[in-house]
């Protein structure tokens, strides 16, 4: 009885430590009031900027975008700074997508240092997507920059120059950051360290999810006010096709820290990203954390920062643990060695049978597979009950608490049942089962340390802690009440480092990818579950099965309850897709939707018929599997493109056509030019008359996967009202066909059958947009 009690107490302590570690990375701080000391970051002061930064959607090129920039310039001027706004035409050649060019308007202001060793760039972007006001993305970042600038200008001057960089067109290929790099010229080779502020949601803790090279000094800069941070996210993010302003800066040789708020992603890039839904606690956390990092880096020798070694870092309770990357592989090698030594010692003391350990090692992966299967099955079940969940970013709807709780309970139940089964087979000896669990993180530690060194700590510390617990347990006498307790406490390092990661992964990956954190949960729970299972080793099998069934039913009910309680309302609107497309050549217009399970309000406009033919005259409307919903719409006064031939010359089989492309009405956010390559080869193109001079563009097919003949494209973001001239050099014996298209932010609201209901919102990137196109044959 004493052994069981001590084991259960140890297990409870491990679970409480893990839960506390997870809670610390989820709980946002209270906002600091506006009357706080001038030397601290105040979310209430910063929050005053947000209504000016997010009055309405303000994509690049719109009057609202310039109004936001004017406000930012005014606030920086009030702080005694000298903000400068530049204009440039930045071009990003495409490989598997259209070439991209845009008129960029960046704002810079410098807080001069006393003895600068380089430049510290504090970066946020002023533009939003066309469908959302951008209170979080990136009003939160811009407001934080303004409040940090106030703190720095009212306090002692920093050692290093702090450059405030408010970029344009982050949402459009990060053209603002690219333009800033171009403007630096040779100065780009000087030491530069970046602190970039972003958002992929409206709530939650500040997450430092990416660094540049030489990360050791950057991780040290986070020590005073640790954010949610793990070098695992840094490894994974580099493999994903996601970009922020840090991406081009890093590619140019700069290093830095990338921060974001990622909770509440259901409102990401939509109308709900407004001031009312911005969590002031998240603003406080982001601003306070960024200010602490800026102060540390502004006082450092940036030459040393940009030459520092790499590091591994992770949350463990209130601490940010960090150590040199050079220690990763030795520690990973130590993990299997320590486990082998503990197993050998246990065998010598006759506490380990090889056959039983092998059986445990072979069956434990079934638990991990079951945890992954639960995550996948739960998502499929939720989609059956709520098909609209697929419309949310990463499968992360507004309210996920019941589903997450149910999945955790289901995973804990599966792990516990495996532990009970193993305890029964082990006849009371848990060392074989513990070795069977620990062999997997011990074996994974080394290859992960080689391939993804920033992720190895999860397996390394799980295996090292477990090996230490196993050694202590075996040293205790067979009848000692502390034997099982020591084994349970050996799980403490693994659970404490895994719990914050699990708490981060659920909002980062969404319910659609819940399998990944659930596998980590099963791995972390298995070792402490073994001593707890001893208490049930002699319990009747029927009672154990009944208890497991009851827990599984409860978990399943919680997952199902998430679908029942997540009904759409004005505060939690359902995303829908609805766009407007005008064929200006034929004078025909259509309401279009990508929704697979369309809401009645959508089908009232589009009807129920689907088509894949719209891409032939509107390249933006590529049809998903099953086609687009499309129904007749009134012809509305949206922006319309116009193509004019300026000159047309031939030299043998080569032809150079100079075209003027502009919008003849309205203020589009995008102007596009496409070439039909089915009978024409594009040899190259030149964008003429840009602020930076003539820009050469590659030919060929930069849209090879397009489902239409328009396989060469050029997108002009924030186009000039005067239009743009493009010289196309082509080869082919047939007439040249080009298509011009405009994109407006918003729908022709007056033509809607009825306004969008309050319980509906726009799905990101495929709603609330209007297109018009014309074909020109030469």
| pLDDT averaged residue by residue | 92
Point out poorly predicted stretches: none
| Outline type | globular
- For the termini, the CA-CA separation is 92 Å
Question: How many runs of DSSP E, i.e. beta strands?
Answer: 25
Q: What Rg is obtained from the alpha carbons, in whole angstroms?
A: 29 Å
Tell me the helix content: 40-55%
Discrete helix count: 21
Instruction: State the major sheet.
Output: 16 strands, mixed
Strand content range: 15-25%
The quaternary state of the protein chains shown equals single chain
- Which structural class should the secondary elements be placed in? alpha/beta
Describe the structure.
This protein is an alpha/beta fold. The chain contains 21 helices and 25 strands. The chain has a 16-stranded mixed sheet that branches. It has a 5-stranded antiparallel sheet with strand order 16-17-22-19-20, with no helix packed on it. A two-stranded antiparallel sheet has the order 9-10. A hairpin with a 6-residue loop joins strand 1 and strand 2 (99-111). The longest helix has 32 residues, at 354-385. It is globular and about 95 Å long. The mean pLDDT is 92.
Give a brief description.
This protein has 778 residues and is an alpha/beta fold.
Question: What layout of secondary structure does this protein have?
Answer:
Elements: H1 2-24, H2 43-47, H3 50-53, H4 63-78, E1 84-92, E2 99-111, E3 119-125, H5 135-154, E4 161-167, H6 175-184, E5 192-199, E6 203-211, H7 215-220, E7 228-229, H8 231-239, H9 246-251, E8 255-263, H10 280-299, H11 302-305, E9 311-316, E10 319-324, H12 328-348, H13 354-385, H14 401-426, H15 431-451, H16 457-475, H17 483-489, H18 492-509, H19 515-534, H20 541-565, E11 574-576, E12 579-583, E13 588-593, H21 600-606, E14 610-611, E15 628-633, E16 640-651, E17 654-665, E18 670-676, E19 681-688, E20 695-698, E21 710-717, E22 724-731, E23 737-745, E24 760-762, E25 769-777
Parallel strand pairs: 2-21, 3-4, 3-5, 5-8, 6-7, 11-24, 12-25
Antiparallel strand pairs: 1-2, 2-4, 6-8, 9-10, 12-13, 13-15, 14-15, 16-17, 17-22, 18-21, 18-23, 19-20, 19-22, 23-25
């Amino acid at each position: 009885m004493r052994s069981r009690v001590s084991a259960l107490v140890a297990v409870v302590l491990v679970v409480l430590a893990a839960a506390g570690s997870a809670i610390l990375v989820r709980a946002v701080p209270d906002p600091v009031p506006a009357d706080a000391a001038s030397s601290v970051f105040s979310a209430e002061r910063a929050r005053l900027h947000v209504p000016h930064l997010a009055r309405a959607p303000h994509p690049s090129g719109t009057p609202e975008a310039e109004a936001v920039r004017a406000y930012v310039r005014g606030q920086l001027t009030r702080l005694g700074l000298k903000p400068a706004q530049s204009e440039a035409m930045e071009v990003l050649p495409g490989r598997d997508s259209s070439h991209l060019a845009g008129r960029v308007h960046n704002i810079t202001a410098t807080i001069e240092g006393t003895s600068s060793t380089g430049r510290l760039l504090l970066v946020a972007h002023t533009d939003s997507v066309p469908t959302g006001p951008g209170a979080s993305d990136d009003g939160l970042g811009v407001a934080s920059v303004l409040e940090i600038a106030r703190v720095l200008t009212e306090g002692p001057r920093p050692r290093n120059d702090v450059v405030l960089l408010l970029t344009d067109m982050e949402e459009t290929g990060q053209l603002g950051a690219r333009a800033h790099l171009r403007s630096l010229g040779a100065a780009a080779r000087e030491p530069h360290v970046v602190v970039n502020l972003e958002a992929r949601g409206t709530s939650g803790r500040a997450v430092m999810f990416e660094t540049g090279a030489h990360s050791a000094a950057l991780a040290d800069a986070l020590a005073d006010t640790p954010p949610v941070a793990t070098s695992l996210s840094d490894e994974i993010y580099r493999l994903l096709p996601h970009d922020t302003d840090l991406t081009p800066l890093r590619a140019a040789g700069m290093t830095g820290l990338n921060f974001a708020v990622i909770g509440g992603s259901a409102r990401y890039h939509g109308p709900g990203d407004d001031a009312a839904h911005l969590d002031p606690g998240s603003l406080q956390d982001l601003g306070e954390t960024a200010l602490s990092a800026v102060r540390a880096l502004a006082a450092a020798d940036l030459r040393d920062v940009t030459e520092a070694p790499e590091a591994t870092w992770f949350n463990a309770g209130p601490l940010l643990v960090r150590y040199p990357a050079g220690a990763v592989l030795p520690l990973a090698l130590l993990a299997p060695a320590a486990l082998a030594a503990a197993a050998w010692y246990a065998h010598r003391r006759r506490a380990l049978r090889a056959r039983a350990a092998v059986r445990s090692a072979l069956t434990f992966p079934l638990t991990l597979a079951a945890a992954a299967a639960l995550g996948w099955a739960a998502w499929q079940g939720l989609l059956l009950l709520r098909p609209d969940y697929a419309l949310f970013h990463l499968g992360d709807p507004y309210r996920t608490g019941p589903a997450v709780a149910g999945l955790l309970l289901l995973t804990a139940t599966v792990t516990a049942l495996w532990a009970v089964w193993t305890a029964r087979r082990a006849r009371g000896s848990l060392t074989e089962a513990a070795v069977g669990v620990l062999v997997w993180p011990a074996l994974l530690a080394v290859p992960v340390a080689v391939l993804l060194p920033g992720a190895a700590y999860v397996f390394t510390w799980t295996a090292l802690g477990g090996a230490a617990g196993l050694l202590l347990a075996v040293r205790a006498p067979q009848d000692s009440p502390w034997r099982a307790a020591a084994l349970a406490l050996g799980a403490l390092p693994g659970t404490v480092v895994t719990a914050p990661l699990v708490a981060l992964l659920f909002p980062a990956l969404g319910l659609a990818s819940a399998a990944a954190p659930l596998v980590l949960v099963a791995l972390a729970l298995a070792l402490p579950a073994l001593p707890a299972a001893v208490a049930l080793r002699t319990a009747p099998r029927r009672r154990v099965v009944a208890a497991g069934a009851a827990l599984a039913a409860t978990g399943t009910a919680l997952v199902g309850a998430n679908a029942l309680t997540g009904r759409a309302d004005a505060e939690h609107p359902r995303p829908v897709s609805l766009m407007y497309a005008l064929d200006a050549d034929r004078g025909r217009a259509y309401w279009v939707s990508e929704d697979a399970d369309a809401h009645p309000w959508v089908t009232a406009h589009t009807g129920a018929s689907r088509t894949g033919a719209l891409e032939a005259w509107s390249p933006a409307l590529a049809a998903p599997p099953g086609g687009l919903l499309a129904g007749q719409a009134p012809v509305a006064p949206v922006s319309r493109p116009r193509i004019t031939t300026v000159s047309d010359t031939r030299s043998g089989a080569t032809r150079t056509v100079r075209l003027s492309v502009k919008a003849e009405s309205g203020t589009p956010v995008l102007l596009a030019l496409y070439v039909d390559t089915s009978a024409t080869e594009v040899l190259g193109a030149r964008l003429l008359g840009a602020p930076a001079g003539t820009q050469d563009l590659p030919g060929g097919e930069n849209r090879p996967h397009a489902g239409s003949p328009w396989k060469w494209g050029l997108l002009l973001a924030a186009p000039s009202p005067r239009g743009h001239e493009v010289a196309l050099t082509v080869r082919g014996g047939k007439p040249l066909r080009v298509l011009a298209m405009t994109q407006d932010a918003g729908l022709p609201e007056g033509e809607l059958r009825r306004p969008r209901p309050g319980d509906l919102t726009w799905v990101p990137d495929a709603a609330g947009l209007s297109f018009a196109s014309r074909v020109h044959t030469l």
